[in-house]
């Protein structure tokens, strides 16, 4: 079964201001997603959640408008 890909937002740690990185994630059902994007700049960006992690998302208002943001890790990276 092919799962739908969505853009979700992951919080960047240690930025001084709130910064959210759009990443590709596989929709697993309900508000559950698995992050599939890779951090191409791991020395420059510290993602709150990593590639392969399954996360719970919720809608929040960002500068782009209503967006799905990762708020809780449900598993470690696979």
How is this structure best described in words?
By secondary structure, this protein is mostly beta strands. The chain has one domain (5-73). 0% of the residues lie in helices and 55% in strands. It contains no helices and six strands. The protein has strands spanning 5-13, 20-29, 32-35, 46-47, 54-62, 65-73. A six-stranded antiparallel beta sheet has the order 4-1-2-3-5-6, with no helix packed on it.
What's the tally of helices?
0
Proportion of residues in helical segments: under 10%
What percentage of amino acids are in beta strands? over 45%
Number of domains: 1
Strand order of the largest sheet: 4-1-2-3-5-6
Q: What sequence of helices (H) and strands (E) makes up the elements?
A: EEEEEE
**DSSP strand tally:** 6
Spatial gap, N to C terminus: 19 Å
Class per helix and strand makeup: mainly beta
Sequence stretches where pLDDT stays below 50 over 5 or more residues: none
Report the principal-axis shape: globular
Mean pLDDT: 92
